[in-house]
Design brief:
Largest sheet: 3 strands, antiparallel
Strand order of the largest sheet: 1-2-3
Number of domains: 3
CATH topology of the largest domain: Cytochrome Bc1 Complex, Chain D, domain 2
Radius of gyration: 22 Å
Distance between the termini: 22 Å
Mean pLDDT: 89
Helix content: 40-55%
CATH class of the largest domain: Mainly Alpha
CATH architecture of the largest domain: Orthogonal Bundle
Low-confidence stretches: 1-33
Structural class: mainly alpha
Order of helices and strands: HHHEEHHHEHHHEEHEEHHHHHHEEHH
């Protein structure tokens, strides 16, 4: 790694360490009558809803917006939700904020794009929505102007969203299931409403609504694959209850799996802050979701006896290059067998990103690296987007996929280039 690359990584690590916690800053404005305990509750709910993850850019001020969301219909930018009266929500009334969260309608009566997950937040109680608003209003004001959305015609016309809502949006608050326990209902509220897990883990229909027939079966969003989180053998069906609970709070299971990309951000900004009781409630709920088959084969169904490529073939040359690069850049942490010390490095064959034949998340991790704060500490893997060219990353991913993923991996430099363009 050159000196500039080392410097950039040190800066990124330092920034992540400095921003690991979320606290009420000294001197921040406080709504009249709000107590520390009330703001603590608002902070907890804001973290559970992962507002920071979607409304804070990598080097931006918390909640100031401008995070880009690429959709099939154009690019959207998250809004400024600080208390600035011009650029943020400082001039919004309680009712206007509640209406946005519950109905997906902005202050001026315009329909909001469903990249903002009001389809999930509609289930939140009014009390919880107001607690979130009060917490946001107590944070530092940031006068940041968000870029204009760049949506293709006719999707730039917000009035057409009423038709989308007619097909894809059911407005209404969460209703407890009287046949289920209090813990199960708490888990459902956290998973479906606050945590809005389905927004990433449920496939979309042609109209970009959630496909409830494949609920939590996995989907691709922002260039990353969110995996199956139903109790199917291709999902979390082979995880023990203890493993599921540990993963939710830490983002990994020792010697088995580790989160990266957007899921690592969810762990960092949201899940690690939840109480053990709420983590337990979410796990209890997820364990009862109807099983759905995912795209990643179960480990028990994978064969690791692939035929060796012909000695003089291009694939053989790619594998040789990939093995050499793996031994040079990867084995100090992952060991030659795809494991690693201390259980923090998942055994590659157990890892969904390694067994997934599209190689999507494996390529992304190679390009972007990994940063995650879990309840058990900080985890980091360097990014190789500037340290290896497309051919080299393709060789490593091909080698890892064939040796540890058990499938006929053969990735090209063009595959890597496409993923670079996604981010």
């Amino acid at each position: 790694m050159d000196n500039s690359g080392q410097f950039r990584q040190r800066i990124l690590v330092t920034l992540c360490l400095l921003s690991a916690g979320l606290s009420i800053p000294a001197g921040a404005a406080r709504p009249a009558g709000q107590t520390d305990s009330a703001l603590d509750r608002g902070r907890y709910l804001t973290q559970a809803a992962n507002c920071k993850g979607c409304h804070t850019t990598i080097l931006g001020q918390p909640y100031a917006g401008s995070v880009a969301f690429d959709t099939p219909f154009g690019t959207l930018y998250s809004t400024n939700i600080t208390a600035d009266e011009v650029e943020g929500i400082g001039a919004w009334t309680e009712d206007e904020f509640v209406r946005a969260m519950h109905e997906g309608i902005g202050r001026n009566g315009q329909h909001l794009y469903p990249a903002f997950p009001y389809t999930a937040y509609t289930q939140l109680s009014r009390e919880d929505v107001i607690a979130i608003r009060d917490y946001l209003m107590a944070q530092p004001v940031v006068a940041h102007e968000v870029p204009s959305n760049d949506m293709k015609f006719p999707f730039s016309n917000r009035s057409l969203l009423w038709f989308w809502k007619l097909m894809n949006f059911d407005e209404g608050r969460f209703a407890a299931d009287e046949d289920q326990s209090e813990q199960w209902n708490r888990g459902a509220y956290l998973t479906e409403a606050l945590g809005h897990c389905g927004q990433c883990h449920t496939p979309r229909t042609l109209t970009q609504g959630l496909d409830d027939d494949e609920k939590f079966a996995g989907a691709v969003l922002q260039g990353w694959r969110a995996y199956n989180i139903t109790p199917h053998e291709t999902g979390i069906g082979n995880w023990s209850g203890e493993e599921l609970r540990f993963y939710l709070s830490t983002g990994h299971i020792p010697d088995k799996i580790a989160s990266g990309g957007p899921m690592a951000d969810v762990v960092t900004n949201s899940l690690r802050h939840l109480s053990p009781e709420d983590i337990d409630a979410m796990a209890t709920y997820l364990e009862t979701i109807p099983p759905q088959a995912g795209i990643v084969p179960a480990l028990s169904d994978v064969s690791f006896n692939l035929d060796e490529p012909a000695e003089d073939s291009a694939l053989a040359a790619t594998m040789a290059s990939g093995e050499q690069l793996f031994e040079t850049a990867c084995v100090s942490c992952h060991y030659p067998d795809g494991g690693g010390p201390g259980g923090a490095y998942p055994l590659f064959p157990h890892h969904s990103a390694v067994r997934a034949e599209d190689g999507l998340n494996l390529i992304n991790v190679m390009l972007q690296g990994l940063e995650r704060h879990g309840s058990d500490g900080y985890k980091f893997m360097p990014a190789y987007h500037a340290l290896m060219n497309d051919e080299q990353i393709a060789a490593v991913v091909t080698y890892v996929g064939r040796r540890f993923g058990g499938y006929e991996a053969d990735f090209s430099a063009e595959d890597i280039r496409k993923q670079r363009q996604e981010h």
